[in-house]
Fold each of these.
Amino acid sequence: MSVLTLDPILTRRAEIQRTAEASLGRRQRHSRLLVGLTGACVLVSLVPLVAVIAYTIERGAPAWSVDFFSHAPTPEGIPGGGIWNSIVGSFIIDGIALGGAIPLGLLVALFLANSNSRVASGIRFVTDVLSGVPSITIGIFAYGILVTTLHHFSAIAGSFGVGLIMLPIMIRASETSIRTVPTDLHEAALSLGAKNAAVARRVTLPTALPGLVTGLLLAVARGAGESAPLLFTAIGSQYLTTSPFGPMAAMPLTVYLNGIQAYPDLQQIAWGTGLLLLCIVLVLSVSSRIAVARLGRIRR
Amino acid sequence: MRLGKRSGSVAALKVAAVGAASMVFALPLTGAGAVSVNHSSGPPVALTGAGSTFDQPFFTLGFYQYNKKINSNVTVTYASIGSGGGQQQIESNTVNFGATDVPMLTADLAKATAGTIVQVPVDLGGEAISYNVSSLPQGLHLTGTVLAEIYLGQITNWDDPALRALNPKVSFPNQAITVVHRADGSGTSYAFTNYLSDVNSTWSSKVGVGKTVAWPVGVGGQGNEGVAGLVADTPGAIGYVELDYALVNHFKYFAMQNLRGKWILPTLTSVADDAALHPHVSSTDFAIDDLGGPTKLAEAAYPIDTYSWLAIYEDQTNATTATAMVDLFEWMTHSGGQKYAKSLDYVPLPAAVQATAQKALQEILGPNGKPLLTKAAIAKYGK
Amino acid sequence: MTVGIRNPGTAGQPRRRPAVPNGLYRAGLSVAALVFVALLVAFVVDLVVQARPAFAHFGFSFITGTQWNPVTAHYGALPFIVGTLETTVIAMVLAIPIGLGAALSLSHLLPSRTRAVIGTAVEMLAAIPSVVYGLWGLLVLAPWARTVIEPAVAFVFGHRGPGGGSEIGVGLLLAGLILFVMVLPTMVAISRDVLAAVPTEQIEGALALGATKGQVLSRVVIPHARAGILGAITLATGRALGETMAVTMVIGNTPAITHSLFGTTATMASIIANQFTEATEPFHLASLIAIAVLLLVVAALVNVAARMLVRSVGRSVSAIAVA
């Protein structure tokens, strides 16, 4: 009798094992396919990167010289010019822009991350739409608000435009990152008696820091490379100026204004400046990642 | 924080710091880099201008040399935001001068907020019609009518009988013509369409003249750079670019037939000859393409050319600034400045047009109602 | 991870400032949001005011008109609307799967040192100024497209379509490709951070149940990161919609609708950038600003569509995951 009742169980067990093994093969094949595809995606992403960077180096590296980094520009036909004023100008303009965009961006991101109301949805939606606005319309807006009213061109007006370009990226990326902080961390802190502001400052933002840094880097990369918002506001300059209340040179303007000229040495300056922009963002990216990693280690 | 004893040295440090800082801020006003103090008259003057990108290399070099050689107190910031931008700026009086490739017309002048505007021709440019067909030689013959037919889309292949008729000794390949034009609004397009309208009535009625037009066929390149890139990379392409662009980049271009029937290549001389045929240009009568004339100039003239203009208010309120500006532009429009234009492959203004420019500059008045262009300046530069 | 706990009994902990009260904090956030909204409202109002003459004069035919003629002052925006949509679709159809795939690889599959290097490399793509992309596209990619890509596609699909007389590299396809390259870093960088933040317990739980790597990624990681991926997609789409410099250099700038991948056309952003500084004819400037307003509308519509799409895909994916 016992032999008769055992047999169906054994058969059933063998059946299950067979199904599991059969599906394992299929599932592993699919998995390997997915891993392979994603790897291919990475390669595909790198191809244009290598191509564009190689081309930029090829055309821009010849422009690099001691003069290039330390002198203000000289006109076409006179050697020894450089982009020192554009470098300083970019730092000033982008610095002021970040001074406004970082705090405002973080606060709005916190507001959105903590709220699922209709108002918040509306603001999120409008932020997304703003990120798609062509930079030249932002330049027109900055011009209307800060140049025609004050009757002169200024770097501040340029910073305003650049800040407006950086804001939606910062807000959206920061909000996304803040939302990835697990709610139990948040709640644990609150339950220990911390106020919301302290929780944000000491729990949420530090945890979300890597993502915040990504957002910041993307925003800086975009904002520092756009010439359209500066065209009618800071307008550029042949001289080194440090006052934010007058015209100022900037690297993306140098790239654009020199790139459209006929003369090969002006075009070479454009490429050299483009290459420099690239390198600056690279340095910022690497150093901020190192800083974030080190901060993370200390906290742990 | 003991202030008592240290206050003296701290104060001294502060004064030194302020002094250093103010020197840094003052440096731009004296012209960065050029610390030659031998030529300077009067207080520092900082001028601003905006407009045509075509003028930018010449202006940059000219202002730099004026600052170095004539008056190191005068610095100019020029925003090359395009002629339309320049017009808008001068209309709202946010700059001292505007620069525009097509002069401001009555409708634009009406928008000026600070009075009448005087327009001064400041430099000259020609247009080369470039082509990219490897088997064809440089300097093929072309007439305006045939060019218009190409741009109208009526002639679509290099093998066309019309082209062969103009160049009987050349063998043309069977290749489609790709028409390239400017995508952005530009004075170059204005001069080109003006020329086509003059020589071809179909173009005139169908498309017309403008900085931006509804091109019947072809692709648009962004700026001279874009057109040149497209022409260089597309076998069978044809496109118009500013002369300095074609010369600097060694393109192949056509020899156009002028009204006297001669086939003329665009060069600095042939463009100047064309301009000299019509010296009394003004902002209402400024087209200089394809002019006829009984003189030798007409035989050697290249038909597609255009001026670039300064726009300055007639009634100036700041005598110092305005005098410096008028002085600067007298120098720029005469041999002092024009030799630098020539070094950059712009066409120097012919003598007759220089006289026109001077007359226009003399119309600019100071707060006392008197012309600002001094006799001394005319004597010094006006040759 | 330290939290700001004040423990009076513990030595070595410096006394911190009194915490910001909750009400003040919330008010501060609201003020920030208000300032931001005020900026946006000012922006839109400024645009609409400048665009009004065009809308008033042309009416609805501005949106449906296909002629853009500054000489006769006839302005119609339809070709640019279509061009913008076409280029954005091409860019996103490529960027979403490839970007997501790369992000998956970067966040879960690659060893950590390679991860850092490649991640930084992709971020560098975002740093390249638009002008450089445009010039590279025109001077390098366009000839390549003309000699290699287009004949290959024509060979496979059997047709070329109208393209301005001869096979030229510039056109819709090239513009879409350049846009794809430009939005890729945004897509990858943000998706990577979101995917990396999926809690390890979920992943380990799935693995413990016998799931393969692929199953973990597709049934656990992606559904969990759905909202963040939407954020990445919307930012990337925004960039694609508004990109001017690079697109205008490679799209051919023919103000007409094209039905071929190799045809030349124009986008809303490109026509504004091209003609803004020289627009002095009557209604020209107002029409260009009107196009900017239309671009805002198109961006809004695209965003709504994207949200609905991702929501429905997410629902079906999480249904599978739960079952």
Amino acid sequence: MTMHTVAQRAVPALEPARLALVLGGLVFLLMMLLGFLMKASQAELVPLEPQLFYEIMTAHGIGMVGTAGLTGIAVLWHFLGRHLELDERIFWAFLGLFLSGVVAIMGGIFLGGFAAAWTFLYPLPAVSGGVWSPTVAVLYLVGLALVGVGFLLVHLECARALRAGWGGLSRALAWPLLLRGAQEPVPPPTVVAAAAVTIFNTLGLVFGAAVIVISILEILLPGVSLDPLLAKNMIYFFGHVFINATIYMAVIAVYEIIPLYTRRSWKTTRIFAGAWSVVLFFVMAVYPHHLLQDTVMPGWALVVGQVLSYGSAVPLVAVTTFGLLAYLYRSGARLDLPASLLVLGVAGWTAGVMPAWVDGIIVVNKVMHNTLWVPGHFHMYLILGQVAMVWGTLLWLARGSSGSGLGRSDRLLFGLYLLGGAGLTLGFLVAGASSVPRRWAVHDPAWTVHDLPGVFFALLILVAACGFFAKALPGLVAAGEERRA
Amino acid sequence: MQELVLTVSLLAIAAVAGAFLHVLRGLALQPRASAEADGLARLRQRILWCAGLVGVVIAVATLLPWPHAVPAGHGVVPVHVRGSVWAWELDRTSLPVGVPVVFHVTSSDVNHGFGVFDPKGRLLFQTQAMPGWVNKVAWTFTEPGRYRVLCLEYCGLVHHGMTAELEVGSTS
């Protein structure tokens, strides 16, 4: 067994994970522009036909989820590669599959008119009311499958490396430390997080792949069909696990970068190992909270969905959030823009979880499900959470840790992003509490009062994000050239 | 309900923001002593216990009685609802006040969401309409008026046009 604990491995000339982060940053900007257009259309400022609106909605949803996955796995790969030997060819293959999938997905949407939303809720891809052809639906689903296979490859390589480096996934999860109170050496937080994400995201992807294949077969072969309730379970298991994995992968950047500022290394303690083991099971078991309005589901499953919806927030708040605050407090850290965005990422994630678990209560869900309350909470833990962590990582890769605090332009960009993110997401929550439905291309006149401020706040986010990207790009290009030289 | 949910959520978000602001203000203070580190560990333990306790209270308070229970027997008004792209088919749209109504909701094609809004536009309840399955949801209307049914599960290009109306009378 070869132990690779804290040794920093050499970074290759053209690191694919770094390239993935740059591509991800660029796609985030494009997807934010699409989000802005949808809000402007609902506010009746930009005329969009419903068909184009729903195509944009599908592209925005799958684009954001896919890019969150791309950037999350790039963060995981980059930092895990400092502890373990990973086969870089796998990540290149992933990037090839990912980009091929994106071409098929975007072709299906904007050339073929596919608009079944990113969740492709069975059997909607096959039943379009004559709007898109079966071929186009297959093209979209094949694109998803290509992307999924790419993610699966990376996770399998991570699993191989974790087993080779730590003698098994249970040791990488620090279970000897958790169960017996001692382990030598103790895996660093990055290894523990990578092991947990690798397990649950692999399972999620397998279920996603299965439902995609059945959806394709149903379109191609008349007579093949799947129980819609089973399909819904599979889709939400995959979707819930995947989107959560994007955040749990991105938080690895916090474990790795923040200690450079606080000069207090983030350690794997018994409670840390326990929290990640709880996350490993809860992330998978909690998905029925997406089916709380399907009363034909077994009652016990809905109870599990509600109870674990609350329970999932506890390890986050008690370990990652509390841990970050404890590491920061009285540390003397001078937070520059990358570090500020990483801290914001954990704060936004934690804040977004609050309205999310409230929505996981069945009686609340009856009046909040599929209103704008839902995009309210997931935009909060994505824009101010996962995406903020990705911007922080990109800027840190470009600029390093300056330790000089926030400059004037950095402060301005950070303020715009925070104001835009908070304004947009709180506006969604207020609109949800006012019963405005989500995923409606045409809004009643009474609802536009909620849409107009959203346009303004979305614009602030877009401007700030362009600023982050513009600030990161020269540093990333220069760093790449330096490594090649 | 919606106001309470919004208030609780905003308070929880404010508490998170407050904790971060407090810590960020204390960044430059003198490094903590080990005794204080022990205090932090105790604080975390207290947070965990409190979170567990609050979780149990919320679960009991919101799951009993079972939120999806539907009444049966005489006096219950059944309404059969079928969604299909992009219209609602209901076997009755005139409903009484003060009598339990049980909606039996299904779909003939894709997933839809059966959401009923009061005359002021406030969502009262919802359930999913799914092909091959019948979800049941019960409601007792307390005010007469014209209620709207909106589709709350994205179902294709005329999703926003999939609406219907219920006329709730003034007597039972």
